[in-house]
Amino acid sequence: MTKTPYPGTQSIRRAMSLLKAFTDAQPEWGLTDLAQAVGLNKTTAYRLMTALENEGMVARDVHTSAYHLGPGAIVLGGRALRTNDLHITSRAELEELAGDTGESATLEIRVDCDVLIVDQVQGAHVLGAAQEIATRWPAHATSTGKVLLAYLPVTQCEELFTVPLVRYTEKTITDLAELQVELAQVRAQGYATVHEELELGFVAAAAPIFNHNAEVIAAVSIGGPGARLQASHLQGVVNQVIQAAKRISERLGFVNSNSD
After folding, report:
1. Among 57, 65, 138, 195, whose Cα sits 20 to 30 Å from the Cα of 19?
2. What is the set of domains in the chain, with CATH numbers?
3. C-alpha atoms less than 13 angstroms from C-alpha of 213 in its C-beta half-sphere
């Protein structure tokens, strides 16, 4: 006997398909193109989008009438982030890192060939341009990005990038083969550093966070001016970052089979 769907189930699925159509690559949609993209007729799409707009889940540009995600979606996303196990588990470690080092601590995940800051704690030494939650940076030029790329299969990593890689400073790695060599070293040593590869004067160190399936799901980092994070001081910071990432991983259920 076929189970009858609950009343309204189809409308919910359709509304969700409309919301999921908004991506980093396609943050805005005209109604006609959006309806075609999700396989709905224009009238149905308009009715659903109007309901979503009334709830603040989408909004329209006053000049073009194009839709984009609204404040309601942002609020829900923030709530989801705050109740996420990774976010909750790592928060105290970020605060301790920032307090101990005086530099900014971040929690970041990979989104395609970028990294996304999902949490951040400012240190006592405030940077001129503070990093903000939801900021994206190119993975190949960041310590967190190198960590997250290092644990991907080589072929998957190569598929993410067009070559040559974008250069941000004279120290940015722009050759994919050279990047792969560095990623192998990152994986072998369990951490990554960058020295002015994204921004002149900026130095950072990052370590991977593993989940209960031994998968790297995020990276934690400390970053600041090279004048403060000089070689004599940086290794100590690296060790602090590694230990913080290890504690977060353990709280997420990771068991290191290589440990003594």
Report:
1. 138
2. 9-70 (1.10.10.10), 84-251 (3.30.450.40)
3. 3
Question: Structure pTM?
Answer: 0.69
Instruction: Please report, as a single letter, which amino acid is at residue 7.
Output: P
pLDDT tens by residue, the chain, 260 residues: 444 455 568 889 999 999 999 987 899 999 999 999 999 999 999 999 999 999 999 999 988 999 999 988 888 877 766 666 788 889 999 999 999 999 999 999 999 899 999 999 988 865 544 567 778 899 999 999 999 999 999 888 888 887 789 999 999 999 999 999 999 999 999 999 999 999 999 999 999 999 988 999 999 999 999 888 888 889 999 999 999 999 999 998 898 876 54
Beta-carbon contacts of residue 89 (< 8 Å; ≥ 6 apart): 248, 251, 252
- The span from the CA of 157 to the CA of 166, in Å, is 15
Distance CA 198, CA 176 (A): 16
Query: And the tokens for 177?
Result: 């083969």
Alpha helices in the chain (DSSP H): 9-20, 31-38, 42-54, 71-82, 85-101, 143-150, 154-160, 176-189, 231-251
